[in-house]
Design brief:
Length: about 220
């Protein structure tokens, strides 16, 4: 199938081109929003996807994991008022970021499609929403990102942590693309596009954290 037969899963543009191909799957790039994505025919089944996640051994007792999450926790927590209410989207098999915010005095709900699948938390709005190492798993990023943004109150924040794609030469050597559960790859340009669509203020923190604030 020619790449132009695909629509971008984030902006629905047909301005899609081949970006990279390895021995087991194909990667396309949208020339409008700059999302790099894996076509649906290369996605794992939900059962196989969960099998991969079940291998994760993250927990609040893991100090190394806490240090990793602090890249998102520290800058976001610094912006929050005491006792803020939050949602950790994609909390995983060992929720930890939510625990860190609760220890800081905030009230946090969790949602995960595999491990905390009660969708009722998605029906509320929060002072902050976090998605740590989550968006790269989104098969339908337009729908999933809209859902995240809808949960953010006016004046609130969406904090995302994900590795950012660069040029094709870097992508070819990039370990991040080799995870079979990773199907959407974002870049700084992609987040710039998203912030413009949402009329959100975007702040990049370090190499892999994005904070989007909602003003309306």
């Amino acid at each position: 199938m020619d790449a132009l037969d695909y629509l971008c899963p984030m902006c629905r543009s047909d301005r899609v081109v081949d970006f990279f191909e390895d021995r087991w799957r194909r990667y396309l790039r949208c020339d409008v929003c700059r999302l790099i994505f894996v076509p649906a025919e290369f996605h794992l089944s939900p059962a196989d996807e969960k099998t991969e996640y079940d291998k994760h051994e993250n927990s609040p007792d893991d100090l190394g994991y806490r240090k990793f999450l602090s890249r998102l926790f520290d800058p976001l927590n610094a912006l929050l008022l005491p006792g803020s209410k939050g949602l950790d989207f994609g909390s995983g098999p060992g929720p930890t970021l939510s625990v860190m915010f609760e220890e800081a005095g905030h009230d946090v709900s969790i949602y995960d499609p595999f491990y905390a699948s009660d969708q009722s938390p998605l029906n509320h709005q929060y002072d902050f929403v976090t998605a740590s190492e989550v968006v790269e798993h989104f098969r339908s990023p337009a729908e999933d990102l809209r859902r995240l943004w809808a949960c953010v109150k006016t004046g609130g924040y969406l904090g995302i942590m994900t590795k950012l794609a660069r040029d094709e030469a870097s992508f070819a050597k990039w370990h991040y693309k080799n995870d079979a559960t990773h199907v959407s790859f974002f870049s700084r340009e992609c987040f710039d596009w998203l912030a413009e669509q949402w009329r959100a203020e975007l702040t990049f923190v370090g190499s892999d954290v994005m904070l989007l604030s909602r003003s309306h």
